[in-house]
Design a protein that fits this description.
The protein contains 14 helices and 10 strands. By secondary structure, it is an alpha+beta fold. It has 4 domains: 2-102, no CATH class; 106-206, 2-Layer Sandwich (Beta-Lactamase), CATH 3.30.450; 211-301; 304-442, Histidine kinase-like ATPase, C-terminal domain (Heat Shock Protein 90, 2-Layer Sandwich), CATH 3.30.565.10. Helix 1 (2-42) runs antiparallel to helix 3 (57-104), helix 11 (310-325) runs parallel beside helix 12 and helix 12 runs antiparallel to helix 14. It is elongated, with a radius of gyration of 47 Å. The two termini are 88 Å apart.
């Protein structure tokens, strides 16, 4: 039964594909018969069967020419019809495919005409807007989902009417119930078969979850930065406490020890040459230890910074750096008439210390330039070296805690730190921190 149906279907399809050709052949046959009959009627002495099967040669030529024209016309017409049917089928398939894509799209989509009327929406858009399709179709687009750009020149439809080919915006849409939905809206022209602009097709991507994640990420980063700033404060407090304890305990002990050694030396007779030399060596060792203790205390808690300001502390640090490394330094401290508060001064000083440490460890530099400028509203420090330059990998390395710490110190006061590698050679560190005239964080 199924094979018979398939066979009949094949016959139908063949007739459908070649029907006009068969009609052309049939018209040719009919013409041949009619022409034979006309000859019998006009020339009565002629036999019909003879005219049908054996006409004169000139008559055969004429009939075959006309029959051929019928057949060719049928074939040509059939080709046109078949091409049109194929085009219609392709168009129908494309329309079905586009409709299916439109209806099943994960994004909300709608089609709006030039008068702002909604002419089509998919189910996702209906869910997004909180309205039924029947309520949406024919309604003005700005009444279904209203946004801050509606009625302005920046409206996607207005831009498309102004010959824009594609418009993508990040906006917040208000539903009929008053709730707001953040969306990425993509608008493209909707044109007719002749290319005339009918309206626009809008795609709405709901980014509520993404915005929520972004807010949570920003809040998390803010909390982490607050924690980092708090840890820096605690760290500085702990450094100050340790520095005070070293100064009070170890410093006093070393001073007393030096006095005792000096007393012993005075009591020793000159004949005890070995013991006298020993006391001299011990005294020198104590002096060296005192210098080391003072250097450690200065690193832990730069008293010079609090007593004489940022410029003096940086100058002292540079002198120590030159003595320790032998690297030449060019200094331009400008006229820093207004020093930032202690917290900002300490942040800049610590960033400067870390920068010099990085130069010592990694740069292989022979010269360093240091500049400190007061711009009235910001303090800018610039440190450049002529070393081999920092690599891009190290700048982006999550394990570069020194660089991360420098950035976080600057960021905690609303500042910025930029590290760049020069075209020729060397690295430049620029830190900019706003001056708080009231001594409070802005």
């Amino acid at each position: 039964m199924q094979s018979q149906i398939k066979k009949n279907s094949t016959k139908y399809i063949d007739v459908k594909r070649f029907g006009l050709v068969l009609i052309g052949i049939g018209l040719g046959v009919i013409f041949w018969i009619l022409e034979s009959a006309i000859h019998v009627l006009v020339f009565q002495q002629v036999d019909f069967m003879q005219q049908l099967y054996g006409p004169e040669p000139h008559e055969v030529w004429m009939r075959l020419t006309i029959v051929g024209m019928f057949v060719v016309f049928g074939m040509y017409s059939q080709m046109i019809v078949n091409s049109r049917r194929k085009a219609e089928k392709t168009s129908q398939f494309a329309n079905i495919e586009l409709a299916q894509i439109f209806e099943t799209a994960a994004d909300a989509m709608r089609v709006v005409d030039r008068e702002f009327n909604v002419i089509r929406v998919n189910e996702t858009f209906s869910t997004l807007s909180g309205m039924r399709r029947e309520e949406i179709i024919g309604e003005k687009c700005f009444k279904v989902l209203h946004g801050p750009l509606c009625g302005t020149p920046d409206c996607p439809l207005a831009q498309i009417l102004d010959n824009e080919n594609r418009v993508e915006i990040d906006s917040e849409k208000t539903r009929s119930d008053g709730s707001k939905i953040p969306c990425i809206i993509t608008a493209t022209p909707f044109r007719g078969p002749d290319g005339t602009l009918i309206g626009i097709v809008e795609d709405f991507k709901d980014i509520t979850d993404r915005k929520k994640s972004e807010r949570e990420l920003i809040e998390s980063r803010g909390k982490l930065r607050d924690l980092a700033a708090h840890l820096q404060v605690i760290r500085e407090q702990e450094r100050a406490r340790i520095a005070h304890e070293i100064h009070d305990e170890l410093g006093q002990a070393l001073t007393a020890l030096k006095m005792d050694v000096h007393w012993i030396r005075r009591k020793l007779p000159e004949s005890e040459f070995g013991l006298v030399e020993k006391t001299i060596t011990m005294s020198a060792l104590i002096d060296g230890t005192v210098s080391s203790v003072q250097r450690i205390i200065s690193k832990l808690h730069p008293r010079l910074l609090y007593d004489f300001g940022l410029s003096a502390a940086i100058e002292w640090q540079i002198d120590e750096f030159v003595k320790r490394t032998g690297i030449q330094c060019d200094i331009d401290l400008g006229s820093v008439d207004i020093d930032p508060d202690e917290a900002r001064s300490l942040a800049i000083y610590r960033i400067f210390q870390e920068t010099l440490t990085n130069i010592t460890r990694h740069a292989d530099a022979t010269r360093v330039r240091v500049g400190l400028i007061n711009n009235g509203t910001t303090i800018e420090m610039k440190v450049s070296d002529n070393g081999k330059g920092i690599s891009g990998n190290r700048l982006s390395d999550s394990q570069s805690f020194g660089i991360i710490g420098m950035r976080e110190r600057a960021h905690s006061f609303g500042g910025n730190l930029v590290i760049t590698k020069a075209r020729g050679e060397g690295t430049t560190v620029v830190v900019t921190i706003p001056i708080d005239r009231n001594g409070e964080d802005g």
